[in-house]
Every structure is written in structure tokens, then in C-alpha cells.
Design brief:
By secondary structure, the protein is mainly alpha-helical. The protein has one domain. The protein has seven helices and two strands. A hairpin with a 5-residue loop joins strand 1 and strand 2.
């Protein structure tokens, strides 16, 4: 049986923090868009006042720092810390989007959203972000086949490229030609054959 990161405390943290982030974003959007969030404009945050844009980028950076520290504290081995980070990041992102959609009705799974602002805006449909979040949870729980870990790295790079390409002009269609190999390569690192044995 493969040993994994401490799932229960990581799950509790990720779920609680995902909902907290959801609430913060609801407040930020209400401050920035008192007349309603422009659901048709995934880059709408950029037309808000500059301090709100920078506040949002700082919040995102702080979130990543918290997730990294949690993963660091949850394990002693580098590989297990990496798995813990992927797991908590994926679950946090899932709870965040489910919470945001259930409270505000936006963004729906087929809508585009600004996923991240650092170093440039990442824009993609919510379903694409959720697909990567689920892949991260699976990789966090099941781990990597060491020889195939580079496939995950390439998949992650292609996924990032698809999100950044989606942010270059809000009217651009999301590049499925980057997403499909990205998610396939990321999941190719999962040691499914070891789990079945």
C-alpha cells in the first residue's frame, strides 16, 4: 500500500480555506462592481480601480504562500510535500469555485474566469480549471510514477500556456489543442498499475 500525505487535515484546511477565499472574492467583486459583476467580461477586474487589481494579486500570492507552508509542514520528504501541495491546491480550488457559483451564480462551469493574475492574467473556462484541480487531487492522493514525473511537468507547462493564451485578449477562444495534451500528460504520471497490483 502506497503511503500518502495526511489527507484528513489537508482536506479540512483546503475546504475551509476554499470557502473563505470564495467569501473574500464575493466581497471584492461587490466593492469593485457595485452594479453587478460583468459576467461576460472575464477580464473585468482589470477595469476596476488599480488598487483593487493589486489587492487581488496580493491575495493570490498570499494564498499560494499559505498552501506551500501547509504542504511543507505536513510532510518531511520533498515528494510527499509536493503531493500534499497538489492535493490541497486542487481541493481548495474545487471548493472555491463550487462555493462561488452556489453563492453568486457566477462563474458557471462553461463561463470564462480570471484564474490568476500573476505574472499576467490567466483566463479559461471554469471546467478547464476544475479538470486540473481534479488531476491535482488525484496526483496528490495516488502520487507519481517516478519515471513519468517529467510528463506531469510538461502537462503542467502546457496547461499554464493554455490559461495564459486564454488571457491574451478576452475574445480569444480557449485553446483546447493545448488543454487536451496537457491534462493527458499530467494524468499520465499517476501510477495506476501500481495501485491495481
Amino acid at each position: 500500500m502506497r503511503r500518502g500525505p495526511p489527507i484528513l487535515p489537508l482536506s479540512l484546511f483546503a475546504a475551509a480555506f476554499g470557502f473563505e477565499e470564495c467569501a473574500i472574492v464575493v466581497y471584492l467583486r461587490r466593492l469593485a462592481f457595485p452594479n453587478g459583476y460583468p459576467g461576460g467580461d472575464p477580464l473585468g477586474l482589470q477595469v476596476a480601480s488599480l488598487p483593487v487589481y493589486h489587492l487581488e494579486a496580493a491575495r493570490e500570492a498570499s494564498t499560494i504562500v499559505l498552501l506551500v507552508v501547509l504542504a511543507w509542514l505536513s510532510a518531511r520528504e520533498a515528494g510527499m510535500r509536493w503531493r500534499a501541495f497538489l492535493y490541497v491546491f486542487g481541493l481548495w480550488d474545487i471548493v472555491y469555485y463550487v462555493g462561488l457559483w452556489s453563492i453568486t451564480g457566477h462563474p458557471a462551469p462553461l463561463e470564462h474566469d480570471v484564474l490568476f493574475l500573476i505574472p499576467v492574467p490567466w483566463v479559461a473556462p471554469v471546467w478547464a480549471a476544475m479538470a486540473f484541480a481534479v488531476a491535482f487531487v488525484v496526483l496528490g492522493v495516488l502520487g507519481f510514477e517516478r519515471r513519468r514525473a517529467p510528463l506531469f511537468g510538461v502537462g503542467l507547462a502546457l496547461g499554464l500556456a493554455s490559461f495564459i493564451a486564454g488571457g491574451i485578449g478576452a475574445s480569444n477562444a480557449y485553446p483546447l489543442w493545448l488543454f487536451l495534451p496537457a491534462i493527458a500528460l499530467a494524468l499520465a504520471a499517476v501510477p495506476f498499475e501500481t495501485i491495481r497490483a
